[in-house]
Design a protein that fits this description.
single chain, mainly beta, six-stranded mixed beta sheet, four-stranded antiparallel beta sheet
Length: 225
């Protein structure tokens, strides 16, 4: 019944003209939380989503540039957390990706290869989908990646308006990190963004309100060290 309650609340807010959008704006390393957009590229579309699957804005969001963003030192195996301005409000998976910069992360346009490190997918153990709609999401830097500077990208794929009558929404932010202590033994499945997500992906086209008993998160499989 949790999903139906979420839908009812969303409808009530919509009737009042309230936006139910959100943005990942703060990064923490271990227990140290930094200022909003200190190490996360700041977007220019407030907390609105990206919906065009062919747009370069799918990489790090609209207007999100690296030149005015700091890069934080982090060790392989260290924990990090992305915190939002308001908790995730729309059903859908949360995914975390990384892309190694050829030089400084602040100069990187994110056009290179991306690999996924984590999916927060729905839990069907109760007989219905339960989504992890939280105010923050934590994981660890993989121990098997190479040292260097990376973009650390988090994505909420909101599928509350089923395709094709509705358009799924991507809420995206990229942090800039400098990783040390990795083994470099990784061999991830990589994708380009845009290009990683298609309007034929079952995880993109699914109707979560009808016969919804399993789910495949779009994109590559997460890296396993």
């Amino acid at each position: 019944m949790k999903n139906f309650a979420n839908v009812a609340v969303a409808a009530a807010l919509a009737a009042k003209g309230v936006s139910a959008h959100y943005i990942f704006q703060q990064l923490s390393i271990d227990t140290t939380q930094y200022a909003p957009f200190e190490y996360i590229r700041q977007n220019t579309n407030y907390n609105s989503p990206v919906t065009d699957l062919t747009s370069n804005d799918l990489r790090c969001n609209v207007g999100a540039e690296g030149a005015d963003t700091k890069t934080v030192d982090v060790k392989a195996g260290q924990s990090f957390t992305f915190t939002l301005d308001t908790p995730v409000y729309h059903q859908g998976p949360i995914s975390i990706y990384m892309s190694k910069a050829p030089g400084a992360a602040s100069d990187y346009d994110a056009s290179g290869e991306w690999f996924k490190i984590k999916d927060f997918a729905p839990d069907f153990s109760s007989g219905q989908a339960v989504w992890d709609m939280a105010g923050s999401y934590s994981y660890t830097i993989p121990t098997c990646i190479e040292d260097g500077e990376y973009l650390l990208r988090i994505q909420s794929l909101a599928i509350h308006n089923p395709w094709p009558s509705g358009i799924p929404q991507f809420y995206i932010s990229c942090a800039q990190v400098k990783v040390s202590g990795g083994s470099g033994s990784y061999s991830p499945e990589t994708v380009l963004i845009p290009g990683a997500f298609k309007d034929t992906d079952p995880g993109y086209t699914v109707n979560i309100y009808s016969d919804f008993h399993n789910y495949t998160v779009p994109g590559p499989a997460p890296l396993t060290c």
